[in-house]
Specification:
The protein is of the alpha/beta class. It has 2 domains: 130 residues, Up-down Bundle (Four Helix Bundle (Hemerythrin (Met), subunit A)); 238 residues, Translation initiation factor eif-2b, domain 2 (Rossmann fold), CATH 3.40.50. It is built from 13 helices and 18 strands. It has a 7-stranded mixed beta sheet, sandwiched between helices. A 4-stranded mixed beta sheet has the order 13-10-11-16, covered by helices on one side. Strands 3-4-5 form a 3-stranded antiparallel beta sheet, covered by helices on one side. α5 crosses α6. The protein binds 5-S-methyl-1-O-phosphono-5-thio-D-ribulose. 5-S-methyl-1-O-phosphono-5-thio-D-ribulose binds next to α2 and β11.
């Protein structure tokens, strides 16, 4: 996507200037007020970038994990060192399954190869994962744009109103995004649309990142308080919701940013279609019941008690919101049961949020994880 007239992806490989390779990312903790990039020179820096949310969004976390393992192989390609780096990277964020998927993929390749070949193999595989993510997101965009076009045909003469939660745009992936890709593709195809952007407390990925993306792309949008969606749906002001996901079970339950579940309930109550966009790397074929079996990350209470923004002097400042001494809790994700999901928008097309729907689109992947492999509850 374009920022200030220049094409960017969220992650790219630095030149090898004799010191080994490095990886560059956009620092998302500084957006929307400052556009800065960071260099990740080793696997510890990659792990830190994931846990402090310099990079975030399920697909991008996966790609950063893959590059993190490549950086680890460059430092020490022994089995023991790779296992340690794998464990360190995997522990950074527990909910998005793309991280485990990407780390498993790179680790399996490396452990089967001679140590001397491992760094080059790892960087190549991480690059392939990044390219596949771009292709998946572009295809999700095409399939999802068809839904937006259909909504436009139903209501000629007025914009299609799409509501989205958190940031599932290009910043959350390598390029295009998941939930926002259909919006970009539909807008570029000339569909008149408008996006309701949930602010997405406590970290405000909607207000800061989704709004930044839509503004950069020139797409009509309005930032709303998280609590406004139900009211808008009740008054016919939302044609469809599209959100992303950090982990989708084989039965179609969807885990996404905290507050997604409430939006799905409001959509269900008001007859508003509720779509979830995802690449297949976000499907956890090992589990059925998302409420019981998806680990929900709990982050620092400080993200709830404090908020940051740009002060009149231009400085980005953090202020305290709550009375000093009030305790707070900060669950980062929730699970929307499949029955509230109208459809899953994947790189292979749109399917029902059911085991049969997913199996029909992914007979190859679903078969890789037969029932006997499913993990017992709470062991992920
Ligand atoms: O905590 P974050 O910002 O990493 O959460 C991101 C989301 O919840 C996204 O909706 C999800 O990762 C899908 S991104 C394409």
């Amino acid at each position: 996507m374009r920022i200030n007239g220049r094409d960017y992806r969220t992650i790219w490989l630095g030149e090898d200037a004799g010191q080994g390779r490095s990886v560059a990312v956009i620092d998302q903790t500084r957006l929307p007020h400052c556009f800065e990039t960071r260099t990740l020179a080793n696997s510890d820096e990659a792990a830190r970038a994931i846990s402090d949310m310099t990079v975030r969004g399920a697909p991008l976390i996966g790609v950063t994990g893959a590059y993190g393992l490549a950086l680890a192989a460059q430092e020490d390609a022994s089995d023991a060192a790779l296992e340690a780096a794998y464990a360190r990277l995997l522990a950074t964020r527990p909910t998005a399954v793309n991280l485990r998927w990407a780390l498993d993929r790179v680790k399996a390749l490396l452990l089967a190869a001679p140590a001397a070949d491992r760094p080059a193999l790892a960087f190549a595989e991480a690059g392939r994962i990044a390219e596949e993510d771009v292709a998946c997101c572009a295809a999700i965009g095409d399939h999802g744009a068809a839904l937006i076009c259909a909504a436009a045909e139903k209501n000629p003469g007025r914009p299609v109103n799409v509501l989205t939660h958190c940031n599932a745009g290009w910043l959350a992936t390598v390029d295009w995004g998941t939930a926002l890709a259909p919006i970009y593709k539909a807008a570029r195809a000339g569909i008149d649309l408008h996006v309701w952007v949930d602010e997405t407390r406590p970290r405000n990925q909607g207000a800061s990142l989704t709004a930044f993306e839509l503004l950069s792309e020139g797409i009509n949008h309005t930032v709303i308080a998280d609590n406004a969606g139900g009211h808008l749906m009740q008054h016919g002001m939302v044609d469809l919701c599209i959100v992303g996901t950090d982990r989708t079970t084989r039965a179609g339950d969807v885990c996404n940013k905290i507050g997604t579940y409430l939006k799905a309930l409001a959509a269900h109550a008001n007859g508003v279609p509720f779509y979830v966009a995802l690449p297949s790397s976000t499907i956890d074929w090992r589990i059925d019941d998302g409420v019981a079996d998806i680990p929900i990350e709990e982050r620092s209470a400080r993200e709830v008690t404090h908020i940051s923004g740009r002060a009149p002097d231009g400085a980005v400042t953090e202020v305290l919101l709550t009375p000093e001494g009030s305790p707070a809790r900060n669950w980062a994700f929730d699970v929307t049961p499949a029955r509230y999901v109208t459809g899953l928008i994947t790189e292979r097309g749109v399917c029902a949020a059911t085991e049969a729907g997913l199996q029909e689109l992914y007979p190859d992947l679903a078969l890789e994880s037969p029932c006997g492999d499913r993990l017992p509850a709470r062991l992920k």
